[in-house]
Write a structure and sequence with these properties.
heterodimer, A: mainly alpha, MetI-like fold, globular, B: alpha+beta, 3 domains, 5-stranded antiparallel beta sheet, 3-stranded antiparallel beta sheet
Amino acid sequence: MHPALQGLLTIVIGVGGCVGYFYSANLFLDKVLFKAEGPNAGRNINRANMIRPWLFLLPAIIALGLYLAYPVVATLRLSFLERLPGNEFGFVGFDNYSKMFAEPKFIEAMKNNVLWLIIVPAAATGFGLLAAQLTDRLSWGNIAKSIVFMPMAISFVGAAVIFKLVYEARPEDVAQIGILNHLYLVFGGAEPQQWLQIPFWNNLFLMVVLIWIQTGFAMVILSAALRGIPEETVEAAIIDGANPFQIFFKIKIPQIMSTIVVVWTTITIATLKVFDIVFAMTNGQWETQVLANYMYDKLFRANDWGMGSASAMIIMLMVTPILVWNVYNARKEMR
Amino acid sequence: MDAIAGRKPIVVWALNISVVLLVLLWLFPTLGLFVSSFRTGDQITASGWWSSLFASEQTLQIRAADPDDNRVDLGNGRYMVEGNIFGEDAFGGEMTAWGTSSRNLGANAPGDTADLGDGETFTLNADGTYVWEGDDDQISGRAQRVFVDATTPPDFTLQNYNFVLFDENNSEGMAKAFFNTLTVVIPATIIPILIAAFAAYALAWMDFPGRAILIAIVVGLLVVPLQLALIPLLSLHNAIGIGKGYLGVWLAHTGFGLPLAIYLLRNYMVGLPRDIIENAKVDGATDFQIFTKIILPLSFPALASFAIFQFLWTWNDLLVALVFLIDASGQTTVMTKQIVELLGTRGGDWEILATSAFVSIAVPLAVFFAMQKYLVRGLLAGSVK
């Protein structure tokens, strides 16, 4: 069958199945299991109403449990096992972890990831804040914002191609087609550089791609937060003779601090999972390895499920503080 | 505030200029790819894309027509070849000078006759017509090379798109990958919305024990990296016979998209006016009716924002497709994977790369610009409170 037809059929079956499930489960509950009539009508309605939420939630709980909760446990388990011949597994304790920490490539990935985690959220939030403040009262601010926001729609892989062209290096005696090398030569560089092959600095050139993508996100949210600041506080500061910098740093920033933290952590999570950019641009060569790509290497190239799972657990461990903090905040809000 | 602050014109100028710079900085990388996708491979390697936007001085290296097929016998052992150096098509540029070897570029003006020695001559006019004359030996073998200095206007072509999308013989074309991506994306966007909408309604408007804990779990699952799910779920899919394929990738995208969907929709639904829902209940509406007749239509903006997120995320995804969809046969490859592959095999062919990448970027960009309002609204609902 043609995949497009198959897709169409799946939509029909999937959507029909969902609607059918919700509709018939409700009908069953009201008309068969607990009829809202007869001597026990009142009790039946109460019972039906106790069960109904779970009917509504059931598909979501199954999907969440199977696709997100179960894998956390299963990956944790796999990280303590090794694959033996014949689809058997043997318990090896922390061997996978200790082997991993002894691997230079893993240490490199950890170091790079820490670097990513420090630089990308800071830079994206910083640029986002700058863009939000600058465009705030500009007549064409919305157009400017649209353009800074646009990379958000572009895939990491697309962005990788875009920036490969920016970083492209050609031999010295022919015309440069990468704009970075062109500018580098115009401003007195000696010879064209292979930007992605210079250890350490190439990490920064990869980070630029993610910063370019995430800045728009930061800008949109921070711009809304800036708009939400009560005018009176700013006006009062102006009357007291504050200069624009003081207004920005001492009046505005403190008032949107909680939003800045939310933006920062959201970008941090995106940064932790960064895979496509490195996979497409350097594939971890020239000392640009990161955890997610290291894990992919272990799982699908080396076929080492134990170490692959162990490195996935490291990523999980790194998001855990944010997870706990988010849950804590969500619960605080509900009270 | 403008009036109070009494902004000086110079400050306004500085502000405008810095925003222009910022916008250009953000636009330039994409623009480069976009422009490159409309240039031929030769043009791309000959000059940077930024110079193609303006008329440029170029030296074109062209050969005259093949003398063995085209020469005309003038008698007395003289032969000549006549024609237009620019071929059949009209030349849009303007010739400034020309030469007959790479050592004397631009030695002749248009209309000049160059003496090639031993009675061999070459005349080239500004419109490209030429006369190449000489004896039997001279007008044979390889055709004469001409180096034309010309100011060429911006010159763009659609042939890359033709090749990448519609060429039957191009085994690395994007057409199949485009439809595969579409096949992945549409069910993977619609199904989680339905499941999440019911769950979100239950979490927002129904009272039952354990509700708060469920909401907390959803918030927690929001940040669980999907990297953890790869191996356990692939084994699961293999065990229950789904293996690698569309069904697996639809299920995976549904699972991974649900936390955000439930979270966004619940936040939105909680904010709907209580009166409407209670009035409906008093009038005897069941929860199912309230949901389908009142909540769903009112939640349209939130549904739209999530749909856009999920659409962008599944369209742009590489990892989930690599793990759950693309098998050894490569029949089910998606666009992101195809581009990564092209980066490996056609790393230097920028006309192919740029065009392929732009084909995959174009749809999300169109959705982005058409639905930006909903996207922004969704982002704000998801992270600011």
